[in-house]
Design a protein that fits this description.
5-stranded mixed beta sheet, about 40% helix, about 130 residues, single chain, Beta Polymerase, domain 2, 5 strands, globular
């Protein structure tokens, strides 16, 4: 899928993940891309992604991106991981967590996961409280 085609279906497209938040950036990880998708363009986008070799790579325990609430779907093709959501609040929180992870330069993956769990879902770190 061409970046321009992705941008047509999305309100916003932002590079995220450890390649963005860590300094030095790891080289053995996927390139994560957060996409706030226009809900009306969702079906066509998913069809286009499938034709371009992307496959659903998410866990079913996450809320469906089309049902509201902290929903997202992840689609992968090679090293590219698209994190798709129609939820503007989830998108805002994801970018907030990304900015904090980058500011703190959280090199430890478990620390980044804990931060995102807290910001996105309100989950405290186990054993800390």
């Amino acid at each position: 899928m061409k970046v321009n085609e992705l941008r047509v279906a999305c309100v916003e497209v932002t590079l995220v993940g450890s390649r963005v938040t860590c300094d030095p950036a790891p080289t053995d990880t996927d390139q994560d891309v957060l996409c706030l998708v226009d809900i009306d363009k969702w079906p066509d986008l998913i069809e286009e992604l499938t034709w371009d070799g992307f496959s659903f790579d998410g866990n079913e325990h996450y809320a469906n991106a089309l049902e509201g609430g902290c929903g997202f779907r992840s689609y992968r093709n090679g090293e590219t991981n698209l994190i798709l959501t129609t939820d503007a609040e989830f998108h805002r929180r994801f970018l907030a967590a990304t900015s904090v992870a980058k500011h703190l330069n959280l090199l430890n993956k478990a620390d980044r996961i804990s931060l995102f769990q807290a910001v996105l879902y309100g989950n405290p770190m186990e054993g800390v409280l």
